[in-house]
Amino acid sequence: MTTHADLRVPTRFGADREWSERAARPLRLVAGPGANPTGEELAALGAGLIRRDELAAELVRAVRPNELHRALAAGPDGDVPEPLRAFYDAVGRRPSWVDDTLLARGAEACRTFGMDAGLVLAYGSLLGGYRTAAALEPLVRTGRLAGGETLRRIQETSIWWRAVTAPGGLEPGAGGYRLSLHVRIMHALVNARLEADPAWDWELRGVPVNQYDQASTLGVFSTSFLLHLRLLGVRVSRADAHAVMHLWSYIGWLMGVDEDWLPHTERRGRRLLYHFLSHDPPPDGNSVALARALIDMTDDVTTGWRRRYERERALSVSCWLLGRAALRDLGLPYRPPWYGLARIGANLLVSQGLGRLPGGRARLLARSERQARAQFRRWGATLPPG
């Protein structure tokens, strides 16, 4: 196995500073004073590309994949191999900063955002992440989020997102907790397989699933998520934003992100995300292919006017959230932002209006549940309870 001592900072790091600084400029504007990384932080960024989640890596080295899959299905309370029991024990020792009250508020806040949360995660966070070639090669190598797999993977991610934001979903043994650990171990298995692949380009990419990319991905589920919600006119109170960042910091910890790169607050999250994007490589062929697959993901489950509407809606809201330059980078056509503007109009009435009234939060939660079930029906799937 390749070790840290064998590796140098991959050449993808800061490969095109002119492009990355231009792409990161909006984040620079909201990151606050002192946003530029220090020399120590720059060194840590480069080192993050050659560091893996060692706790999960140790587990997959100790247990054969077939046995590990069976043990994961049995759950934390089942009869599991000793290395997996040690893994469960390690993640069961929660950091002292975890606050159950904030976790509950952050999860509830995420649920109140309704369909706007789904739009932001797909066409702001995920599509925005495709703009850089940083973390895409493992997705393409494993067939994740490509071609006909796209809609299925979006459904799976939606189910996981609902599980971690369900009431009590992150309690030990609960659905969100178990799914998050499962995803963490799956990442480690993918890492082990790609690290053993002679075709993997270590000099260019470093560790396949590395700490840098894991922390950056956490940023799009937390920091970028909140920024894009506000662009759709969604009301995000200061208390809710703080709780959402706390929630995703704990989820990131559960999934193996180093403590040093957990965002905790919006300001810190914006600064970290700026550091990542301003040193990411520009888009490549994977970026274009994955972006097109995401825009076209409902083509197989829609027909006629609905198919065209879904694609035009996706392009329109993507333009609003990411801007014309991002879509150009992704090889996607520009569309006027009619759908983003429509969401702002709707949210002035619902999120900014109804949400402030007595009982408004409960109504937003009930509305969100209806929207989630309707979305899964349009996908030709059934949303599980939770």
TrEMBL record:
It comes from the Bacteria. Coiled coil: none annotated. Transmembrane segments: none annotated. InterPro entries: Lcp-like (IPR037473), MPAB/Lcp_cat_dom (IPR018713). Residues 114-336 form the ER-bound oxygenase mpaB/mpaB'/Rubber oxygenase catalytic domain. It holds the Pfam family MPAB_Lcp_cat. This is ER-bound oxygenase mpaB/mpaB'/Rubber oxygenase catalytic domain-containing protein. It comes from Actinoplanes campanulatus. The lineage of its organism: Bacteria, Bacillati, Actinomycetota, Actinomycetes, Micromonosporales.
